[in-house]
Amino acid sequence: MSVKSIFYITFFLLSLVLASEGHCDSHLNRQNIFTLNYPPDKTIMEFELLSISLKISQDSVDLISANVNDVEKIRIFPDSEFECFSIPLEIGTNRINLTAIKEDRLIGEIIFNVFRRSDLESKFKEPPAGFKKDYFHMKENSQCAPCHIMEPTGADKKSLQMIFSASENKAVVDASSSTCYSCHKRIIAYPFVHGPASVWSCLSCHDPQAEPKYSVKKPVTKICLSCHLEHMEKWNAKKYFHGPSNTGKCSICHNPHASENPSSLFKPIWDLCVSCHIDKGDGRHIVEGYVNTDSHPTHGKPDPLREGKELTCASCHNSHASDSPKLWRLDIETGIALCKECHRKPIKNIR
Ligand code: HEC
Ligand code: HEC
Ligand code: HEC
Ligand code: HEC
Ligand code: HEC
Ligand code: HEC
Ligand code: HEC
Ligand code: HEC
To answer: Which atom of ligand 3 is closest in space to residue 204's alpha carbon?
Structure first.
């Protein structure tokens, strides 16, 4: 093969690579059109939001598209040297792909991975090899300091009285007085927001003196107890506790910040319970011992006892504690007594 033909073949292959947008990172972005300040590759996250911070060389890019597992999540039209935004993560491994476009051409690409762990999915409790937690606030972040306040101020400390009265009265709080707001503003952008997060009292749970900085003291239950003493006292007086509520892990089920679901639960109640009790979704367990039927509804019907609510696992069970061994609501002694709460007329086919 002549030198010339090698040259042409190489040229041909290179143009193929450049044409096949999105499949190659090393050849692109050679002139550092944009660089990733945060996050590093292979970090572990707990919750849904990931912050991304980019440095972009002036006027070099028209559009940046951020994709998670090949689905576009956000488009940015850069107008400054720094671009900061956040994207939602899926549970498990997220392959994040940032592409830079100039005049309709792909001119740069950055690919990295983030793992979002979850106590509710046995497959995703532990990260794959090579992933580790990166503590943003433990690092020197002078790059961010020109535009963001990096240490909490007096305005971040809020009294319990203020928290309770503001959340009771649904008072509008000046969020921007919180130093956390400028970077974490999207953390409460959900329909159901937890009291202290709604008034940006982040330091109620996150200790700036802790190591790692802002970590939450464990067990988390103790933190919850500090404001929910009434609930906890009520539950502690019961005979039986639900495993996960009793092991200090209130935040297995409740997102401490905000969520799509009432009581800021990580999932709608039925899905939440079935994540751990996989075999209970069909309702067979409800009727098995009592009537000759194969199943009982566990969702999708109105709850006869709780007006306006859907029938779910929580219609019959208390998620925290109960005086009944099966954690029945209403602390009922026997299954039959439970049936009668909803079925006032005799049930057919009783065993
Ligand atoms: C040149 C100024 C500048 C610098 C430097 C800067 N930011 Fe920002 N950042 C901003 C502005 C302005 C906003 C608000 C943008 C808006 O209004 O949506 C912002 C917003 C954010 C957000 C919230 C984005 C969202 O929509 O959820 C995050 C996260 C963030 N910055 C992180 C960082 C980090 C981390 C650094 C340092 C590595 C940094 N920023 C450096 C100006 C800057
Ligand atoms: C300059 C932007 C910025 C400001 C201001 C900021 N954070 Fe963060 N914080 C981040 C980024 C980026 C991360 C990395 C995780 C992520 O992607 O959200 C983070 C992560 C965290 C974490 C997880 C642990 C860690 O270190 O990674 C906690 C907890 C936290 N922030 C709390 C706070 C609180 C409380 C405040 C206000 C007192 C605050 N942050 C202010 C940008 C900021
Ligand atoms: C009721 C307690 C509570 C409040 C209030 C609270 N957090 Fe958290 N936050 C937690 C817990 C619990 C975690 C889980 C991590 C842990 O256990 O250390 C967490 C984790 C985080 C993380 C890490 C997310 C991740 O994916 O790894 C960030 C960022 C964060 N909080 C920011 C904030 C900000 C900003 C506020 C104020 C709006 C706030 N938090 C208010 C309890 C709280
Ligand atoms: C700084 C005080 C404070 C801390 C700490 C705190 N909460 Fe709350 N919580 C509140 C306030 C205020 C409300 C809203 C008023 C109310 O319902 O009592 C609330 C409401 C709730 C609700 C009911 C939401 C609803 O829509 O019915 C749940 C669930 C909850 N908190 C769980 C937790 C969990 C779990 C923890 C621990 C991770 C925790 N809280 C820690 C203050 C706190
Ligand atoms: C994180 C996993 C997890 C989630 C989520 C979960 N559970 Fe459980 N549950 C357990 C474990 C572990 C046990 C066994 C330990 C015990 O008896 O408390 C248990 C026990 C129970 C029991 C009592 C069993 C008995 O024989 O006494 C009932 C009833 C129950 N769960 C109902 C629910 C309901 C309803 C939900 C949804 C609100 C739910 N669980 C969500 C882990 C979970
Ligand atoms: C197994 C999941 C699970 C765990 C763990 C859990 N909760 Fe809940 N919690 C729920 C569900 C489901 C509801 C909504 C109940 C309903 O609508 O019937 C709820 C409701 C609440 C409420 C609203 C008031 C009420 O009684 O309905 C508070 C407050 C609360 N939880 C606090 C806590 C605290 C504090 C802990 C830790 C000790 C905790 N939860 C642990 C599932 C859980
Ligand atoms: C209509 C009422 C009702 C509903 C709805 C209901 N359960 Fe039950 N559950 C019961 C009864 C009754 C028992 C006791 C059955 C028996 O006698 O063994 C029970 C027992 C259990 C047990 C203990 C099982 C054991 O082996 O000891 C678990 C765990 C449980 N339910 C979880 C769930 C979950 C998860 C859901 C939602 C998918 C749910 N239940 C929905 C009535 C209900
Ligand atoms: C929290 C309320 C609730 C409890 C407690 C309850 N059920 Fe039901 N049950 C329902 C609802 C709602 C339906 C669906 C009715 C419909 O289709 O409109 C239903 C349907 C049934 C059906 C099938 C339809 C029918 O009416 O013939 C049977 C059988 C049944 N239940 C038996 C039981 C037994 C046995 C128990 C006690 C172990 C029990 N249920 C406890 C709410 C409840």
So the answer is: 5
**Going by DSSP bridges, is the β-strand pair 105-116/43-45 parallel, antiparallel, or unpaired?**
parallel
Structural domains of the chain ordered from first start:
23-136 (2.60.40.10), 145-206 (no CATH)
DSSP classification of residue 35: E
- Report, as an integer, the average pLDDT of 11-20: 43
CB 146 near ligand 5, within 6 Å: no
The one-letter code for the residue type at 144 is C
Residues in the chain: 351
Give me ligand 6 centre to Cα 251, in Å: 9
Tell which atom from ligand 2 comes closest to the C-alpha of 215.
29
173-181 CB contacts, 8 Å cutoff, 24+ apart: 173/198, 173/199, 173/200, 175/200, 178/202, 179/148, 179/149, 179/150, 179/151, 179/152, 179/153, 179/155, 180/152, 180/156
Pocket of ligand 4 contains residue 204 by CB under 6 Å: yes
76-92: pLDDT as tens digits: 999 889 999 999 999 99
Confidence of residue 10 (pLDDT cuts 50, 70, 90): very low
**pLDDT: which is higher, 4 or 150:** 150
Q: How far is the CA of 53 from the centre of ligand 1 (A)?
A: 7
Residue nearest to ligand 1 atom 5, measured at CA:
144
Q: Quote the ligand 5 centre to 244 CA distance (angstroms).
A: 7
Cα 169 to middle of ligand 5, angstroms: 34
Res. 4 pLDDT band, cuts 50 70 90: very low
